[in-house]
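Fold this sequence, please.
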Amino acid sequence: MEFRQLGKSGLKVPVLCFGTATFGGGNEFFRAWGETDVAEATRLIDLCIEAGVNFFDTADVYSDGRSEEILGEAIKHLPRESVLISTKATFPFGNGPNNSGSSRAHLTRQIHGSLKRLKTDYIDVYHMHGFDALTPIEETLNTLDQFVRDGKVRYIAASNFSGWHLQKSIDISEHFGWARYAAHQVYYSLIGRDYEWELMPQAYAEGLGALIWSPLGWGRLTGKIRRGQPLPNVSRLHKTAEVGPQVADEYLYKVVDALEAVAAETGKTVPQVALNWLLRKPTVASVIVGARNEQQLRDNLAAAGFALTSAQVAKLDGASAPQVAYPYWHQRSFIDRNPLPPSYR
């Protein structure tokens, strides 16, 4: 398993990370993802370790804390220093006006709750799950810096920030000498390439590692959706497609057609090619893969065992090229003054 530097930090992470949103099934939304219990979770964790993947991602809100609890149980037989744990806070957890956001009050409560549920005394990568525009950025970053100084957190990261949110946070941290965001957890896939417009050039310039969530486009790139073929009768796509970003049918079919062509060239599956395409992109440190069962996990882990060629990546780039929003299309009209990050890693 290849390991990459997480941004400009000293931490190295495997190029695949196991996401545990399928653990617990604590409410209707997460039951559509999965209901993995402790026994099955332990088996999946062991499969990851065998494959060299020791990075596990969760969040306090996944199944109302149940995902963290199950992950904590599933790794307790492993030496703590042998695994990397990523979790998140910011979104509402419980009732009351102070039980959400990135305030000192809420984060202090949530870090202690996560540590207890995970059965550990520190978290390797602690994310702000989203930007909180009501809390001063200085308050959030000062609180996170204190967590690092107290040894409760090793590295801090953002998730789902816009470019100016992230840049302002970086500048404030550097001004005060506080812990700096090492990574940005983002949505990025062959049918969701908005990350490339501003956030990727920023990450490239600032030294931020991208951790990719929903790399298969909310399940649309699993190979189950094909031109002229109905969805399976039993599929989480029936629910998740309603809440995820909408994708035009013809655009999706065009991308899947290209994926199938490259899959035929490589002898790999459609999702393995889609995942490997991400690993060829600059700034990407790790791609978060999920699995409802052992076979899905084995298939996803195999996505790191080969490398697409630059020509194959170019074929997929061309098929998935989106219409770029302003001002990015304008900036790209004078690319000599606004160079993009490399198209192939």
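The chain has a mean pLDDT of 94. The CA atoms of residues 222 and 271 lie 5 Å apart.
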